[in-house]
Amino acid sequence: MNTADFISRKTSETIINASYTWQTPSNIALVKYWGKSEPQIPKNASISFTLNNCHTITTIDFEKITATTSKKEKAIFELFFEGKKKDDFKPKIAKFFERIQEYCPYILDYKMIISSENSFPHSSGIASSASGMSAIAMCLLSLEKALNPSLTADFIHKKASFLARLGSGSASRSIEGKLVVWGKHPQIEGSSDLFAVKFPYKIHPIFDNYCDTILLVDKGEKQVSSTVGHNLMHEHPYAEQRFIQANENLSKLTDILQNGNIKEFINLVESEALTLHAMMLTSNPYFILMKPNTLEVINKIWEYRTENNSNICFTLDAGANVHVLYPENEKKDVELFIKNNLAEYCQKNQYITDVVGLGAKQIIA
Ligand code: DP6
């Protein structure tokens, strides 16, 4: 599929008022997306686990603009976050609507009231752009489906991912579950730079219900915005090698996910996390996004793994929080270890226990 396939053309139905609510998850990348070109095209393919408990719930109320008011050139919307008007989020969403209006011209026919809430604390250092953008995309696709009932479920998933990507790259991976790939890769059938697809091969049962506990080591605002971060890769001395390595890592992980070699999984996932941070350490300007407690936690995880012959490991996103990953059969022991030995490194002892999930869910009132 190419971009032209996503332009909505014919609408057979007339909708005056409509309201749709979607719950869409956050995701955690195993092979990281870091570096992109216009328009939101990744420099390498990435793969993530879709999460279950960390999600956004968004309702969009659509009200058709009457014929007396002339058709607008820009989307008209209001934004509420956790019940309060949120004008500071508006520019980002306005830019998103500008980017997608070519593909969804019908948004100009409506006034949209967007109301959103997250399941995780707002200031937790957990990026909400993936779940936030994917939820808006799903609400728009519900309207598009009402206007054009012939759309298939497969097209809806692809277009929602395509739109979400234009809002935030990683959001493209927050429509489906449990493992999702974004970016064209020779070994992943159907993969594309334009939208994400479900990992298309049989996954080894060791990865069923894989667990992710997010340790809130630093709940502050992100020190480096993703825009700044991705831009750092433009003049980066190691960028080209990194993009090659990420694609090679996805090849290796494609095999590992099928053969269940968990030791190789651990090695690859931790190396990806540290490489992401190494890219920031070696860019100019340079950033250290880990905090002392991030390192304390990593060392504790390594110690526990050796002493208990465990399959616990960690990954990081572009911040200080640590995602602790472990198979379901170690849940009881690892959760005790986290409670007794890792919680103390978290701000206010806070962490979020999550598990791999299935993707976007419509909520019918
Ligand atoms: C480190 O998706 O937040 O989490 O496309 O600019 O919105 P934008 O970036 P974003 O970048 C995510 C980077 C990452 C790795 C990943 O999720 O693959």
Provide key terms for this protein.
alpha+beta; 8 helices; 365 residues; binds ligand DP6; Ribosomal Protein S5, domain 2
Description:
InterPro entries: GHMP_kinase_C_sf, Mev_decarb, MVD-like_N, Mvd1_C, Ribosomal_Su5_D2-typ_SF, Ribsml_uS5_D2-typ_fold_subgr. GO terms for molecular function: ATP binding; carboxy-lyase activity. Pfam families: MDD_C, MVD-like_N. It comes from Tenacibaculum piscium. The chain is α+β, with helices and mostly antiparallel strands. The chain has 8 helices and 14 strands. β2 and β3 form a beta hairpin. α2 crosses α3 and α5 packs antiparallel against α6. The longest helix is centred in the last third of the chain and has 21 residues. The radius of gyration is 21 Å and the shape is globular. The mean pLDDT is 95. Bound molecules: ligand DP6.
